[in-house]
Automatic annotation (TrEMBL), chain A:
This is 3-oxoacid CoA-transferase subunit A. Transmembrane segments: none annotated. InterPro entries: 3-oxoacid_CoA-transf_A, CoA_trans_fam_I, CoA_transf_BS, NagB/RpiA_transferase-like. Keywords: Transferase. Gene3D superfamilies: Glutaconate Coenzyme A-transferase (3.40.1080.10). One of its GO terms (molecular function) is CoA-transferase activity. It comes from Neoroseomonas oryzicola. Belongs to the 3-oxoacid CoA-transferase subunit A family.
Automatic annotation (TrEMBL), chain B:
One of its GO terms (molecular function) is CoA-transferase activity. Keywords: Transferase. Belongs to the 3-oxoacid CoA-transferase subunit B family. It comes from the Bacteria. This is 3-oxoacid CoA-transferase subunit B. Gene3D superfamilies: Glutaconate Coenzyme A-transferase (3.40.1080.10). It comes from Neoroseomonas oryzicola.
């Protein structure tokens, strides 16, 4: 039986053909697990009217790495869906903020656990669920809540994704992925939720079968394109954040 | 003499009981990770799926693939585990957190608190705060008693958009340790030399002994 390799030549090939209007989920939490190289390639590729899903819009820390804020600055984004649409400090002004305040980009703010579960639900064929998170807050105003087992809970809908950008530690040619340390974060959930999954991979891509099936975090049937990250400076790798 | 921030962390951490799973939020609460616990076994959970992390890594020893909720490069202790974000928040919503410690802009006597949106801002920063506040067994807050211009942060009802309703268990400030009781804050402890009158003058609602 033939098995086609999912490895593509470079990052530009990896993001080729992503159409305008796509919903793109971008993995990562702080530095670990962010597919910096795919975001950089999307800046070159130029798809517009994108909806971008990630934990943050980026740009709160130095050095700045490719982020949603850069896609916004590049005129490629219609809407973001994030758990932060401002920084963690009241004094932070994110690169994204002025565009949002001028109404040039929309934002939907979603509690982080609800964001993760909405992605998981989309991948799991669950159209909606109830959660206690955000009940009684501004986010729940005008939305459906119910009392279930004596607790007020809020209806949340699944969040399907067109394209997921993933960063993994190891992959085999069948697309099976392993993550390392806190690099895992949103990545497996975004892979579950997306129709097209593109992974940038840190270690040399292994022959199919080289990752023990018990050690696979994201099964290869979810993954369509793989690209090996070259060593720096050509490839972008996590760096230590400057203290604030 | 009001408490320093490390002293606030030390005082709040004295409330932790042996065997607790503890979630530390961004900012001031990260100081708690430096408090020694002696014979008490405490396990730290970070919202990005790290269970059982230890102190911040020494300079030059950082693993850039491993961060806590504040993005600091932490270390792992023996017995640590890593899960993805949905499982991490399943642990939170599933009631496994004995306590979450968060920073806040405002804490109210009715147990509400606010820590995601400032006055006049269009955006906000929720992160995991609403999930943690809704489902942790206890919510402890660490904050300065007043803003830089002297406005009390402890009040009868929050003026900013709230993070959760009626969930706050304890509040530590530089002046003391307080528990919301509905209409007032009850003093659980005072920093050395701080008087009840000083606390009352700095608080926008009744303070009881």
């Amino acid at each position: 039986m033939a098995r086609r390799s999912k490895v593509v030549a470079d990052f530009d090939a990896a993001v080729a053909g992503i159409p305008d209007g796509s919903t793109i989920a971008i993995g990562g939490f702080a530095m670990p697990g962010v597919p910096f190289n795919l975001v950089a390639a999307l800046l070159r590729q130029g798809a517009k009217r994108l909806t971008c899903i990630a934990n943050t819009t980026g740009g709160a820390h130095k050095p700045r790495m490719p982020d949603i804020g850069m896609l916004v600055e590049n005129g490629q984004v219609a809407k973001v869906i994030c758990s932060f649409t401002a920084g963690t400090r009241a004094s932070d002004v994110l690169p994204f903020t002025p565009y949002y305040e001028r109404g040039e980009v929309e934002a939907e703010i979603v509690p982080q656990g609800t964001l993760a579960e909405r992605l998981r639900a989309a991948g799991a064929g669950i159209p909606a669920f109830y959660t206690p998170t955000a009940v009684g807050t501004e986010l729940a105003e005008g939305r459906e809540t119910r009392m279930i087992n004596g607790r007020e809970v809020l209806l949340e809908y699944a969040l399907p994704v067109d394209v997921a950008f993933i960063r993994a530690y190891q992959a085999d040619e069948a697309g099976n992925l392993r993550f390392r340390r806190s690099q895992r974060n949103f990545n497996p959930l975004m892979a579950m939720a997306a129709k097209l999954v593109i992974a940038e991979v840190e270690e040399p891509i292994l022959p199919a079968g080289a990752i023990d099936p018990d050690d696979v975090h994201t099964p290869g049937i979810l993954v369509q394109r793989l690209v090996k990250i070259p060593p720096p400076p050509e490839g972008l790798w996590p760096v230590k954040r400057e203290a604030r | 003499m009001p408490w320093s921030r490390p002293q606030m962390a030390e005082r709040l951490a004295r409330e932790f009981q042996d065997g607790w799973i503890v979630n530390l939020g961004v900012g001031m609460p990260t100081l708690i990770a430096d408090v020694p616990f002696g014979d008490r076994e405490i396990t730290y959970h970070s919202e990005n799926g790290v269970i059982g992390y230890g102190p911040v890594a020494a300079p030059g020893q950082e693993d850039l693939q491993l961060v806590n909720a504040s993005g600091q490069n932490v270390t792992l202790l023996p017995g640590a585990a890593i899960v993805h974000h949905a499982d991490s928040f399943a642990l939170i919503r599933g009631g496994r957190m004995d306590v979450t410690v968060m920073g806040a802009y405002e804490a109210a006597a009715n147990g509400d608190f606010a820590n995601w949106k400032v006055k006049g801002a269009k955006g906000g920063g929720i992160g995991g705060a609403m999930d943690l506040a809704a489902s942790a067994k206890r919510v402890y807050l660490m904050l300065e008693h007043r803003t830089r211009d002297g406005t009390p942060r402890l009040m009868a009802r929050c003026s900013l958009p709230i993070t959760a309703r009626g969930v706050v268990t304890l509040v530590v400030t530089e002046l003391g340790l307080f528990a919301p009781t509905g209409e007032a804050f009850a003093v659980r402890d005072l920093a050395p030399g701080v008087t009840l009158d000083e606390v009352r003058a700095a608080t926008a609602c009744p303070v009881t002994e």
